[in-house]
Amino acid sequence: MRVDRMISIIMTLLDKKRISAQQLADMYEVSLRTIYRDIDAIDLAGIPIRSTPGVGGGFEIMPKYKVDKNVFSTADLSTILMGLSGVSSMMQGDEMKHALAKVKSFIPEDSAKDIELKVNQIHIDLNSWMGNKSIQQYLEIIKVALEEKKLLSFEYANQHGIMTTRTIEPYQLVLKSNHWYCHGYCLKRKDFRLFRLSRMSNLKMKKKVFIARAYQKPQLDFTGTLETMQTKIKIRIHKSIMDRVLDYCPYEDFTLDGEHYIVNFPFIENDYYFDILLGFGTKCECLEPLHIRNEMKQKINSMATIYES
């Protein structure tokens, strides 16, 4: 508790011109002796504290040490707070709370309401509506492993459901398209790999510390590659699933047809894209090309056979 209290005292001193020992004691519900001991420790840590005796006196950080609050504009502070608030919804921990407290300490009193209004105009919540409850726990484990440069071991399911045991050197946490990944060097494959957290199980941090190697950033932008691979197919959808289809293509590709829409849908001939169409259920029909329509019929018949048996 003492470290948290001392950090909070530093934030308070950065935010205020001067504050008395009694006010600090009342604020943190500790004795005056504890406050004086904390102030001495903060001063020894290299943050110059000045004490002024008498009426109106108290403790303050020497003016030359303080950061000028005007160095950040209202827009700067609003942007930083929006980003930190969004990340803190997933990345919990004292360091995130302290970072938010530090940024808030730079907010001038006359701008506080304006900044609060701007921050509330955009809300970022990275938590999923539903899903794997272990993701949050895994994020915390990986975050510690990144900081301490320790190996991670886990069971991993590939896209075909085959489980393998992996040990990796973690180098980066990645949030891509609402999914969390850990990018690291896989000791089994002898190469860098991107591992999706939802496919992990039994994640553990090992005691062994690794020596960081030359890092290769993951390739995350496949826009150009996908565009060259995709073709447009024609599907007919009921208007009740229009919002779901809009996740994959713009409204310009929709043509109203009574209670339905005819959609020029971007498509690659692999299981992932066929599963997308199947996921729309009876509200979607593939019209053309004929060979994709026939492939859809085969997949639907195969599914029906499972339930008939």
Automatic annotation (TrEMBL):
Any one Gene Ontology molecular-function term assigned to this protein's record: DNA binding
InterPro entries: CBASS_pafABC_assoc_protein (IPR051534), DeoR_HTH (IPR001034), HTH_11 (IPR013196), PafC-like (IPR028349), WCX_dom (IPR057727), WH-like_DNA-bd_sf (IPR036388), WH_DNA-bd_sf (IPR036390), WYL_dom (IPR026881)
Pfam families, sorted: HTH_11, WCX, WYL
Assigned keywords, A-Z: DNA-binding, Transcription, Transcription regulation
Record flagged with keyword Cytoplasm: no
Gene3D superfamilies in the record: Winged helix-like DNA-binding domain superfamily/Winged helix DNA-binding domain
Residue ranges of domain HTH deoR-type in the record: 2-57
PANTHER family the UniProt entry points to: PROTEIN PAFC, PTHR34580
Entry protein name: DNA-binding transcriptional regulator YafY
